[in-house]
Amino acid sequence: MRDTLSQIASDEKFQKGLLLSSQSLLNQVDKYIQHDKSAVNKHHCDTEESLIRYISRMYAKTSPFSTFTNLAIGALSFETKKHFELGEKANPGYESHIRLNNMLYQYLKGILLKISEIYFQFRLRPNPTIQKRDAYYLFLTNSNNIEAFQRIPANPVLEVLLYLTSNSEEGIQYSELIKTIIDNEYIDASSEEIQEFINQLLDYGFLEFNLGVSGTDPDWDIKLRSQLESLPANTVLLKSLTQSLAVMRKKCNEYAQAGVAARKNILKEVHANFRSTCWQLHEAAGLPAEERVTLEEYSKIQIEKAKKLEAEKNNDVIDSAEESAGNNGETKSQDVSEKSPDAFKQKTSTFFHFKPEQMFYEDTTLDISPLIHHDDLQKRIQSLNALLQSLILFEGTQPEIDTMTDFFLKKYGHNTVDLLTFYEDYYREYKKPETEKLAKANKEKLENQNQKDQIPPDGNNEKNKKVDTENLIQFQKLSERQTLQKQWRDAMAASIKARLEAAAIHPAHHDTININLDVVKKINEQLGIHPSLHEKCSMGAFIQFFLDSDSSADAALQIKGVLNSSMPGFGKMFSRFLHIFNSGVTNELRIQNQSMASDEIMAENCDASYFNANLHPPLMPYEIWIPNSHNSLAPEKQIPVTDLFIKYEQKKGGLELIHKKSQKQVHVFDLGFQGHGGRSELFQLLSRFSFTKVLGVWSINQAVNKNFEKTPSSQNAAEKPEITIKSRIIYDQWLILQRKSWQVPKQLLPAKQPLETEAAYFVRINEWKLEHGIPDDVFIFVFDRMDQSHIGEEDRKKLRRDDYKPQYISFKNPFLVNLFAKLITKVPKNLIIEEMLPAPGQLNKIGNVGYVTESLVQWQNS
Q: Is 332 among the domain residues?
């Protein structure tokens, strides 16, 4: 089997993927391939484990973020015989699509804005949040997506700068601004003094540069090159940079066509040349020479600095103790603004930290034409849409919207309020305190977990285990919704329980639980919930379609599917890949989005986040402009947040975002891949003013699973641990909402014994999985990424960064059995084993070979 592993590791496609994702592993592969397979040492075993992880995930796991996953646009078929197919080509070709890492733009921008001969030619415009409040200016700053409100005393100089920089939507060129001030004698100061003052305002975010290049543009390098070449004074430095960018774009195309060896050389060449160009700019900016070193050299410098700092810190502690003793132990508090005047200045990293493999990103498309029958798809999407809309009680954004609405009414009543006023009040008075309380509660929960072994299992210390959440602010709407949700889940759980009892089947022995829309409708009616199936929205879903038959031997094949996730539509989950497909796909999405607007403004949300998965073309006619945000549309299509206010619409019973000039309602859409946790707070708030819906089936799964969970009385530490089995859940006879799974307590895991041979363990593990009805092909989860509260400090030390990811295991494969043995030693509490579905025999085929495939489907109600 090691020969087979070596053959796979030698595959050029596989090595191309490793070149950008793990060069360290790629460097080990050649040694592994050439070594004597009969003489295996620890180093070889470590390489094998890494290879097995990569290869198994590449073949068995759906993932859109790598070279290993091929993309294709599907089409609808009207031929009666074609239910679902990928294509008949035995070995279809694939095309590589290379683009530059947008973090390179973030770095370049930070350097360019420190070189006066360059930034003098850029345009300046005011921070879009500036508001005059009595004797001061209030504005919001954003540095690396961290936001803070700033206040600057009003004075005539600021008024002049505001007037001159806001005359044009694009702003005014820096050098032209200084010239205008001096020529018209607006300010009695030298050009150097004016420049210094303007730079201070830039540091504090009162003014900002407008380069006309968005960090979310897949072609940011082409746009930047074009902008730099159009500047009045094309300096030697700028020429060097634009030439470097042009070469890099050319090398992208060469890299796409090159083999592994050539790709290695291209990466080294591009990295070396670009670093050289950046170091020239870095030196011209007058930045520290110690930053113009390699990563290895820089690491040594930082280690020495850390040692020196630690020594100074120890000395400071001694001095501080002596001073404290002299002051009778008293300490004085200082205001942040006095203590740290630079606390909210714009900050950028100026050290060139990139590795060769971080220069490019790669996507691949496969030369196939997937087809799905129009009627089959329409019927199934109507079925899924009806289910999701019926679960409106559990819509994901509504709890936050309810909280915002209650806060608004308590604070302002039925008055209209400026967006930024609401934002400042809401986050200062509610969000920040709540975040702090929840963080404290989670910390206490983790501390309780770490002390668990010291608490006797007699139940007398329950009050010590409680986490203090009683003081968390509760609003009426949110509280009512939570109560109704619990009633709904209880009703669904009771319905399933009654059905199982009527069939005299223990839940653990029930392989599949079928549900239909009638069950959901009945519970909704009982609780007075009346969802609308025709309310306008756009939805999407990741579904693994496969062909299968019913239990009867002569049954015809039907399209079934596994629902991996559902999400808002509007092109959100297409956006990251649009640049590699025909422009017609992007245009069609724009048309569909615009068709959903009546007399409202549809605007895309923006912030200052640099994240490669957010790269996409604009999909809405307008976009929001916040400080330092990545805006792609023309300035007249950018809506400053100061042009927005909030009102309570009594007829609809909710808040609305209104554009001041047009008095039209504004709907804001998040169309990037990045999770909200990495977005700015204002971005998160704005996303709530939308008819986007976050609908899923987790409420059904949770309710059904209540029948498999142990009751609180059986969770006593003295009780014997048991394996919990959760049934497969199928909706409407075609859609799997939940795969069957086994939750195995750490104590019951079949660990490999010290003297046990691999062959003996292979036999024993297969006997174990047969005993518990576990299939040959599964995915395992070492821990739940969404719930890490039970992971103690010691357990956390064993975990790798990616151990939360599902790991494919085939109990027929000795390599994967060995991997299973290693992974279960890391389990903090429970190992989750989940059936692979579609199973290997159900995989869709290209030619005669089965492949794991996932379809992204989008639809809309209008």
A: no
Q: Total domain count for the chain?
A: 4
64 and 126 fall within a common domain: no
Least confident of 50-59, 198-207, 292-301, 705-714: 705-714
3-state secondary structure of 525: helix
Which of 39, 63, 91 terminates a domain? The answer is 91
pLDDT at residue 321, as a whole number: 45
**Range 502-517 burial, b when 16+ CB lie within 10 A, else e:** eeeeebeebeebebee
Give the integer Cα–Cα distance in Å for 758 and 761: 5
Report the percent of the chain where pLDDT is more than 90: 67
pLDDT for 330 equals 37
Mean pLDDT of all residues belonging to the chain? 88
Q: In what order do the strands lie in the sheet with 131-133?
A: 131-133, 136-143, 146-153
* Cα 728 from Cα 563, distance rounded (Å): 12
Are 606 and 500 contained in the same domain?
yes
Whether residue 541 has pLDDT greater than 70: yes
Last residue of a domain, one of 635, 670, 686: 686
**Parallel/antiparallel/unpaired status of strands 844-846 and 849-851:** antiparallel
Predicted pLDDT at 305: 82
Paired tokens of 6: 């070596």
Whole-Å CA distances, 659 to 5, 420, 570, 597 = 61, 13, 22, 15
Question: Which value, to the nearest 10 degrees, does the dihedral of the CA atoms of residues 745, 750, 754, 756 take?
Answer: 180
3-class SS letters over 659-694: ECCCCCEEEEECCCCCCHHHCCHHHHHHCCCCCCCC
CB neighbours of residue 675 within 10 Å: 10
Q: In this structure, how many other beta carbons lie within 10 angstroms of the beta carbon of residue 824?
A: 18
Where in the sequence is the domain holding 174, given as residue range(s)? 103-290
Rounded mean pLDDT, 673-692: 94
- Burial of 691 per CB tally in 10 Å (0-12, 13-18, 19+): middle
* Co-location of 145 and 252 in the same domain: yes
- Per residue, the 3-state secondary structure of 801-859, as one string, reads CCCCCCEEEECCCHHHHHHHHHHHHHCCCEEEEEECCCCHHHCEEECCEEECCCEEEEE
Distance CA(704)–CA(697), nearest Å, equals 11
| Residue 698 falls inside a structural domain | no
Do 411 and 518 fall into the same domain? Answer: yes
Are the C-beta atoms of 457 and 716 separated by less than 8 Å? yes
Using alpha carbons, list the distances in angstroms from residue 58 to 63, 67, 85, 565: 8, 9, 21, 20
Task: Round to whole Å and give the CA distance between 125 and 670.
Answer: 25
d(CA 286, CA 276): 16
Number of Cβ within a 10 Å radius of residue 175: 18
- Under 8 Å between Cβ of 541 and 726: no
Instruction: Write out pLDDT tens, residues 216-271.
Output: 999 999 999 999 999 988 789 999 999 999 999 999 999 999 999 999 999 999 99
Tokens of residue 41, six digits: 């040492």
Instruction: Please check whether residue 775 is in contact with residue 839, taking contact to mean a CB–CB distance below 8 angstroms.
Output: yes
pLDDT digits (tens, 9 = 90+) for 194-227: 999 999 999 999 999 999 999 999 999 999 999 9
Q: Are residues 579 and 728 in the same domain?
A: no
How many Cα atoms are found within 13 Å in the side-chain-facing hemisphere of 563?
Answer: 27
What's the distance, Cα to Cα, between the start and end of the chain in Å?
55
Angle at 428 between CA 657 and CA 447, to 5 degrees: 120
Which segment of 324-328, 566-570, 701-705 scores lowest on mean pLDDT? 324-328
CB 628 within 8 A of CB 208: yes
